[in-house]
Amino acid sequence: MTSAELKTTRESLGLTADWLAKKAGVQLRTVRYWESGRNAVPEDVAKIMTDLQTWRDSAVAAMVQSYEGATPKPDEIVLLRYRDDAQLWTHHPGFEGLPVTFHASALLAAQKALQAIGCRVKIVYMNSEAYTHWLAVQGFEDSESARTQWAALQ
Fold it and tell me: Beta-strand (E) ranges in the chain?
């Protein structure tokens, strides 16, 4: 991975240089050296970035595939944007350790891919207080399905 590829991938995934430094166990200036071309990008760091890109792209592809074959297609697909890391990790423990901005990059990629197959898509913020109240009124427990139903009402 070249220095330009590292920086481009990191930024497109919504990751900060500081996040990458912590993940790689190095100082921030080391990431800056990699991204400037002063030092070569280590293979393990390149693997972290390509694995994250593959994971995000696979999740987006699976989402698109689930709607591609849907009959009838929903009028509108609503995707939830979380306001901070803690909120994201509460609802999606698989994202723990990744910043909410990584999830945001996946949302944007999903929105574009779904629009490309003719779906109308909007992104709304998760409102934990309103969602918790809605769960209680409905008698539901938190789940992906419940979040999807709640989001559709927003």
Answer: 77-81, 121-125
Asked if residues 52 and 13 have their Cβ atoms less than 8 Å apart, the reply is yes
pLDDT per position as a tens digit, 113-129:
999 998 999 999 999 99
Q: How many angstroms separate the Cα of 115 from the Cα of each of 16, 62, 92, 150?
A: 28, 15, 24, 21
Cα–Cα distance measured from residue 6 to residue 132, given in angstroms and rounded to the nearest whole number: 40
Mean pLDDT to the nearest integer, 23-50:
98
125 contacts: CB under 8 Å, gap ≥ 6: 80, 81, 82, 83
User: How distant, in Å, are the alpha carbons of 9, 24, 43, 80 from that of 47?
Assistant: 11, 11, 6, 28
